[in-house]
């Protein structure tokens, strides 16, 4: 095992967080989730498996937050029968047991694309691998993250801290975008090597048509656009709901520009789907009850803005050719490329794994796919689909306790981020792991709010008069 510089820094933050106020370790953990290309430790004995700074800080987060009796009790309540935490726990248990049993029970009875392989287009007979262990650890970490943050967010102060930490992620992601572009333009990309030390291939020097493919703090542009889509959804939903409007509007615009310039299929597919869903949701609200003026402006302006952009592009031959090439390469003709054919093969084999294992799945870590739903089907089978589906269903449609308007707005934004990530994962996700940020935001979205904790956060209860800065940023 080797300890990297970023690992030493993460350990230092963890130790400081142990003695500081709980909010410090929460901010440190949320910030560390952005370091997708970083390795705190590299386990050479396990084939170069890495421990990311976020997973390292998750341990410190648990020790610090669970030291509070109230947080422990709330975390236990978050796993009560029928709650989102309950279904996630059942899924984690089944995924862990299945990761050990299924590759042995169905060994060599089906073919599977290995999660970590030198030749990813080569299918081998199903057998136990180190990925069964590592993917199980990652998913258990997701469950632990969700439960701990649900317990911490059970108080008003905890919810405010989670909301501010989530907003910090949006800002920090854009900071990394600026650093990525600046270091590439000045040929100083090595300055970011200490947070790009993962054993995975880091594609930091790619460009398309002379345009830099943005990766931020992640290993590739697909990963960057995946997470940025969720951060854009979070910031834009806060803006639509009147929370810190100047800040969240600025963050939304910058995140949108980053997505458009990323030249990523995930961004170009996920963004229109998310915006269409958001448009339909607000339109439905408009038909049933009054909405905020900014939401009405969104409904009116979005179609005209899209039409205007399309017309401007069509009227300029150079822009039309460039955008046409991007769409052809990364969306329209994607499935006919070598990468698209390879990903289609992964999906077909994952579905075949489902049938070959009689609907029980080949085990977490045994299957590589190119779509999250297919990965769940191939890895966890029918039992996992049911329990995981109930967890995801509860994020958006679970019973919600009464809460102040500002809290509801922040939780709505967190649900929007999770929805955007689910869209992106459905387009390009390879595993059942949706990532620590998804479960951190899901905890904020579903945290229980009791009647005793719903104290007004502003002198007026009308949502249009809530003072946003005092809620999110104080």
Overview of the molecule:
The chain is mainly α and 474 residues long. It has one domain. 65% of the residues lie in helices and 4% in strands. It has a three-stranded antiparallel sheet with strand order 1-2-3. Strands 4-5 form a two-stranded antiparallel ribbon. Strand 2 and strand 3 form a beta hairpin. Helix 5 packs antiparallel against helix 14, helix 7 crosses helix 8 and helix 10 runs antiparallel to helix 15 (405-428). The longest helix is centred in the middle third of the chain and has 30 residues, at 156-185. It is globular, with a radius of gyration of 22 Å. The two termini are 42 Å apart.
Write the layout of secondary structure elements.
Layout: E1 2-3, H1 5-19, H2 22-32, E2 41-43, E3 49-51, H3 53-65, H4 69-77, H5 84-105, E4 111-113, E5 123-125, H6 130-152, H7 156-185, E6 207-208, E7 211-212, H8 221-240, H9 245-261, H10 265-288, H11 293-315, H12 317-332, H13 338-356, H14 372-397, H15 405-428, H16 436-446, H17 468-472
Antiparallel strand pairs: 1-2, 2-3, 4-5, 6-7
Helix pairs in contact: 1-2, 1-3, 2-3, 2-7, 3-6, 4-6, 5-6, 5-14, 6-16, 7-8, 7-9, 7-15, 8-9, 8-10, 8-15, 10-11, 10-15, 13-14, 14-15, 15-16
Task: Put the structure in a nutshell.
It contains 17 helices and seven strands. With 474 residues, the chain is mainly alpha-helical. The protein has one domain.
Shape: globular
Provide the succession of SSEs.
Answer: EHHEEHHHEEHHEEHHHHHHHHHH
- For the report, how would you describe the main beta sheet? 3 strands, antiparallel
- The first-to-last residue Cα distance is 42 Å
Please count the helical segments: 17
Estimate nothing, just give the exact number of structural domains. 1
The Rg value, from CA coordinates, equals 22 Å
Order of adjacent strands in the largest pleated sheet: 1-2-3
Mean pLDDT: 84
Number of strands: 7
Structural class call reads mainly alpha
């Amino acid at each position: 095992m080797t300890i990297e510089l970023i690992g030493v820094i993460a350990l230092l933050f963890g130790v400081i967080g142990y003695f500081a106020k709980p909010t410090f370790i929460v901010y440190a953990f949320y910030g560390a989730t952005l370091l997708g290309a970083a390795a705190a430790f590299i386990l050479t004995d396990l084939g170069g498996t890495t421990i990311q700074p976020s997973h390292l800080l998750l341990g410190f987060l648990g020790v610090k937050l669970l030291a509070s009796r109230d947080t422990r009790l709330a975390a236990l309540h978050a796993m009560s029968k029928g709650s989102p935490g309950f279904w996630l726990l059942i899924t984690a248990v089944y995924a862990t047991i299945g990761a050990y049993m299924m590759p042995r029970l169905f060994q060599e009875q089906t073919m599977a694309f290995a999660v970590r392989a030198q030749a990813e287009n080569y299918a081998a007979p199903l057998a136990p691998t180190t990925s069964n262990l590592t993917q199980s650890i990652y998913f258990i970490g997701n469950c632990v993250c969700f439960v701990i943050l649900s317990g911490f967010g059970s108080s008003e102060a905890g919810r405010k801290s989670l909301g501010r930490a989530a907003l910090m992620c949006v800002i920090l992601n854009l900071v990394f975008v600026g650093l990525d572009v600046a270091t590439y333009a000045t040929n100083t990309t090595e300055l970011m090597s200490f947070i790009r030390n993962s054993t995975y291939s880091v594609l930091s020097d790619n460009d398309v048509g002379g345009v830099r493919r943005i990766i931020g703090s992640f290993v590739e542009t697909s990963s960057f656009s995946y997470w940025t889509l969720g951060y854009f959804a979070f910031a834009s939903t806060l803006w639509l709901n009147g929370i810190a409007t100047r800040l969240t509007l600025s963050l939304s615009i910058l995140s949108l520009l980053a997505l458009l310039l990323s030249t990523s299929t995930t961004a170009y597919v996920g963004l229109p789907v998310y915006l269409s869903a958001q448009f339909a949701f607000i339109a439905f609200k408009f038909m049933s009850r009054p909405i905020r003026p900014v939401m009405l402006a969104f409904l009116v302006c979005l179609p005209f803005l899209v039409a205007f952009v399309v017309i401007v592009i069509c009227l300029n031959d150079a822009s039309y050719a460039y955008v046409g090439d991007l769409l052809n390469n990364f969306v329209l003709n994607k499935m006919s490329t070598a990468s698209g054919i390879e990903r289609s093969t992964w999906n077909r084999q994952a579905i075949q794994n489902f049938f070959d294992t009689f609907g029980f799945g080949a085990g977490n870590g045994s299957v590589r796919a190119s779509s999250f739903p297919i990965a769940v089907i191939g890895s966890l089978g029918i039992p996992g689909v049911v329990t995981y589906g109930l967890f995801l269903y509860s994020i958006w449609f679970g019973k919600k306790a009464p809460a102040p308007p500002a809290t509801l707005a922040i939780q709505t934004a967190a649900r929007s981020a999770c929805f955007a990530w689910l869209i992106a994962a459905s387009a390009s996700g390879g595993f059942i792991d949706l990532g620590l940020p998804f479960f951190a935001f899901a905890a904020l979205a579903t945290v229980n709010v009791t009647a005793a904790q719903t104290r007004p956060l502003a002198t007026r209860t009308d949502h249009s008069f809530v003072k946003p800065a005092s809620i999110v940023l104080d």
